[in-house]
UniProtKB/TrEMBL annotation:
Gene3D superfamilies on file: Chloroperoxidase-like
Similarity field: Belongs to the chloroperoxidase family.
Any Pfam family: Peroxidase_2
UniProt signal peptide: 1-21
Cofactor(s), by name: heme b
PROSITE patterns per record: HEME_HALOPEROXIDASE (PS51405)
Protein name from the UniProt record: Heme haloperoxidase family profile domain-containing protein
Ranges where the Heme haloperoxidase family profile domain occurs: 76-312
GO MF annotation list: metal ion binding; peroxidase activity
Taxonomic superkingdom: Eukaryota
Keyword terms of this UniProt record: Heme, Iron, Metal-binding, Oxidoreductase, Peroxidase, Signal
Database matches in PANTHER family: HEME HALOPEROXIDASE FAMILY PROFILE DOMAIN-CONTAINING PROTEIN, STERIGMATOCYSTIN BIOSYNTHESIS PEROXIDASE STCC-RELATED
Organism: Friedmanniomyces endolithicus
Length: 430
């Protein structure tokens, strides 16, 4: 196999099996649509008397909190060290912070095992989700065994536009709107930051981020002539960019074991400093705050947990369940039917009900055309195995072949775009 150890696979499989056998480890009441669930209504009632939690979906039974095991060390070998001239820092603030604190190699280039270990140790990402994301990145956008948190085409996140990194990021620029996919747009940060005006009770939870996600989606339609919301990059990866902010950056405590993400912690993870009337972004200086406590291991953020969050997002905006793009001008957004893309394997309703299934099966079916390799080849075989384990555990329906010609109406659809590109004619910048 060569790309990851058998122990890593075992850990991932155990994580998935534990979610199946003990679903409370992921989230109580994982039925969909979540908004219609009786348990979900009870959840909102519980949270209505709890501040500063708000209306984000949380476990009905709060997860345990253990200060000793959840406190993240940011001293000694893990003290913050700013990146030097030879260190890669890219689009993902969480990965940048891991490298700045030496939980990932400080140069920003890591193996699959290193990504799995660091994201689990520091953020509480489930082994199943970590193995899925890191293997996909390393095989599709890296060397096969490792990849860069920055980089260019075929070597890292920065050059993966259209097949991993994508438009409508929470804080980073749309590639063809700004000519870069790595610049933090302060106006976008202010949109999010100002949604919680009271610093004493501020919590950028999933309820806040769901509203912000809808705003950013519409903003890309309104301002990026080449905006593309793809089957895998849109329905799965772009949602993660929003859900991960609260799920991985919130600070946990005995009082709030589900986590609270306040203004100071948000600024630290996003490399923002200064007073509210003069905020400044320093590229690549993302920092894990002092006295910051991660998710409990019993509350690991697994793939089923992630799917529940996606359903929470899409319950307020069904358009997030539909692939689409602008056709070369702003406000020309057209949906592309899931049935057309999957050659009839999924209807639009089936894709909406199972977004992770549709996105993952589409990615799996697209791999031979994307890479020119057989699914059973040495390089691709490892990724195929990981993707297949995801779809098997979720009971997904296979997609035999994909119809990427349906994306021809999207002038912004490209693979391995970035980290820079020409600004699209008619793009509107904030």
């Amino acid at each position: 196999m060569g790309f990851f150890t058998s122990s890593a696979i075992t850990v991932a499989c155990l994580a998935v099996n534990n979610v199946v056998a003990f679903p409370h480890l992921a989230m109580d009441g994982m039925t969909a649509p979540i908004a219609a669930d009786v348990a979900y209504k009870q959840l909102l009632e519980r949270q209505s008397a709890t501040r500063p939690q708000g209306g984000a979906p949380l476990p009905l039974t709060p997860p345990p909190f253990d200060a000793a095991s959840q406190l993240i060390n940011v001293t000694g070998a893990h003290a913050f060290v700013a990146p030097g001239s030879g260190d890669a820092r890219g689009e993902c603030p969480g990965l940048n912070a891991l490298a700045n604190h030496n939980y990932l190699p400080h140069n920003g280039i890591a193996t699959i095992n290193e990504f799995v270990s660091a994201t689990g140790q520091v953020f509480g990402m489930g082994a199943d989700l970590a193995l899925f994301l890191s293997t996909y990145g390393a095989v599709i956008d890296g060397s096969g065994t490792s990849w860069s948190i920055s980089g260019g085409p075929h070597v890292g996140i920065g050059g993966s536009h259209g097949n991993y990194e994508t438009d409508s990021s929470p804080l980073k620029s749309d590639l063809y709107q700004y000519g870069s996919n790595s610049k933090l747009i302060l106006e976008q940060f202010h949109e999010l930051y100002d949604m919680q005006p009271n610093a004493a009770t501020a919590n950028y939870n999933l309820d806040v981020l769901r509203t912000f996600r809808n705003q950013r989606f519409q903003e890309s339609i309104n301002k990026n002539p080449y905006f593309v919301y793809g089957p895998f990059t849109g329905m799965a990866v772009s949602q993660a960019a929003f859900t991960f902010i609260y799920r991985f950056m919130a600070n946990h405590s005995a009082e709030y074991p589900e986590g609270v993400l306040n203004k100071d912690v948000l600024k630290s993870f996003m490399s923002i400093s200064g007073p509210e009337n003069n905020l400044v972004w320093t590229p690549g200086h993302e920092r894990i705050p002092s006295n910051w406590y991660r998710r409990n291991t019993a509350d690991a953020y697994t793939i089923p947990y992630f799917e529940t969050d996606i359903l929470y997002f899409t319950s307020s905006n069904p358009q997030l369940t539909l692939v689409g793009c602008n056709e070369g001008k702003v406000d020309t957004y057209q949906n592309i039917d899931a049935s057309t893309l999957s050659n009839g394997a999924y209807t639009a309703a089936q894709a909406a009900a199972n977004p992770i299934c549709f996105a993952t099966e589409f990615a799996l079916a697209e791999l031979p055309g994307l890479t020119g390799l057989s699914l059973t080849s040495g390089v691709l075989g490892s990724l195929t195995s990981v993707l297949s384990s995801v779809t098997k555990n979720l009971g997904c329906k296979a997609i035999g072949s994909v119809n990427t010609t349906a994306l021809a109406l999207c002038p912004g659809f490209t693979l391995y775009g970035g980290p820079t590109a020409p600004v699209a004619p008619g793009a509107i910048q904030s």
